Records
---
Amino acid sequence: MESPIMGGAFAIVYLIIIVVEVAAFWKIFTKAGEPGWACIIPIYNLIVLLRIVGKPTWWIVLLIIPIVNIVVLVMLMHSLSKSFGKGVGFTIGLLVLGVVFYPILGFGSDAYVGPGGEESGAGDATGSGESAIAGGESTEVDEGGDGGGQ
């Protein structure tokens, strides 16, 4: 038989988890330049999430088709990870242990890079930095090759 104290403690812990998750999604939406309150409006939060990850709005239909919705959810979570400069490992964390990884994404120091991590924005600093170094090296090689190659 379950004691009333255990039931009340479970309810309090559950409520705390819900509040932390809503706050994490609020921060994720805010970091992406969307209104934070959008995370608490059913259906609209999915539309905004699709916008954040750079997927078309009609993908919401795919989320109501059984089996297909699982595949689409995995794709959305991977795009969300990439949108904040994270990789496959973080995507797996979002899918398996979202209670921990969504707050890491929301409250962490990672900036929104752009839809799917491909748009030039905050990611330009790292992406261009690497490209500039690679570009600088190839420019030096091109300069040396200008006399003979181009």
---
Amino acid sequence: MHPGQTRWRSLPGPGADRVCAVFHDPALAGARAAASRRGGEKTRPAVLAASTPDAPLTTPTELTALLGRTINQVLRGEIDPKVATTVAYLLTVMMKAADRGRLEQRLAELEQALKEKHAEPSLFDPDEFGGA
């Protein structure tokens, strides 16, 4: 050891009879565990209670309403911004999937209408003029 340097990098706890630093003292194991839990609680993201009812997610209006509520909960500090980012991402995925479903439905309807239109007899018969 260098002159003026103490043996422990952390100071021993109160009492002259301590043999080891506070972080290694077996007599303080319970206090260390409690402090660790309190520290872990501070780093946990804030989420809604498990008893919170599910939000309706059927229509674009309901999805927009959930996004608005989530924004307000972040502003009030009720949920962690990381949780809100996840909610916003999932809402975006849901909206894109709904848009794709609507487009597929419209395409199927147009294809059906086109088939029905070509099923009707035409005034022009390509076979009369040596066509296909």
